[in-house]
Write a structure and sequence with these properties.
Layout lengths: L6 E10 L2 E11 L15 H8 L7 E6 L2 E2 L5 H7 L15 H6 L8 H7 L4 H18 L18 H7 L12 H16 L8 H4 L1
Antiparallel strand pairs: 1-2, 1-3, 3-4
Length: 205
């Protein structure tokens, strides 16, 4: 946590259905410090992280972000402050790399600001290059470890991609347009549920 933010669990009980995983837990994440959650497999580490990130509603008790009940806060406000990096991140299909990186900025921008930033994809690709180096370090691999990136629509910004990553090799594939529509609808749903508190499945399709 940064020095000006607080995150805490107050008497939380967590579980799935009738199964209780964590019971009446109090936790305060120290500002400006790194907090590690250590435990055996199946002991509730991931369950606790989901609750602290507002992905799991406590059966009882509260999770407090800056002293406020995180489940009572608007989704966009929470997204501006709190982020979660999954243990095994999976990039969604059907979007370009610059869009994937840029989605992290959406909670901080208005509608028109997003379009204006999209005019230059170089910062997004440069950030992706830095993330790849970080991932290599995390895995204990060499900095020049080759990466295979599945980016079905990267050709939309191909010149920019090759400008930032001149050593990249491109493999082109094709997909049935009908299948792309279904995949895009699924992607839209997954992204919109984290951006808004109101979403109509029939509207998404």
């Amino acid at each position: 946590m940064t020095t000006d933010r607080t995150l805490a669990a107050q008497d939380v009980t967590l579980g799935y259905g009738d199964r209780t995983v964590i019971r009446e837990l109090d936790l305060h994440v120290a500002p400006g410090r790194i907090t590690a959650i250590v435990g055996a497999n199946g002991s509730g580490k991931s369950t606790l992280l989901k609750a602290m990130a507002r992905l799991l509603t406590p059966q009882s008790g509260r999770v407090l972000l800056d002293g406020r009940d995180i489940h009572a806060m608007p989704t966009k406000e929470v997204a501006r402050v709190l982020g979660l990096l999954a243990q095994s991140p999976i990039a969604p299909e059907g979007i370009i790399v610059s869009d994937l990186v840029g989605r992290g900025r959406h909670p901080h921008q208005g509608m028109f600001a997003r379009w204006s930033e999209a005019a230059d994809a170089r910062p997004a690709y440069a950030q992706m290059a830095r993330l790849l180096k970080l991932a290599a370090w995390w895995k204990g691999a060499a900095p020049d470890t080759p990466w295979l990136l599945k980016t079905p629509q990267h050709m939309a910004n191909l010149d920019t991609l090759l400008d930032v990553l001149p050593g990249a090799r491109i493999v082109f594939t094709h997909r049935d347009p009908v299948a792309v529509v279904a995949s895009s609808a699924s992607l839209a749903w997954n992204q919109m549920v984290v951006q808004t508190d109101r979403l109509d499945p029939a509207w998404v399709g």
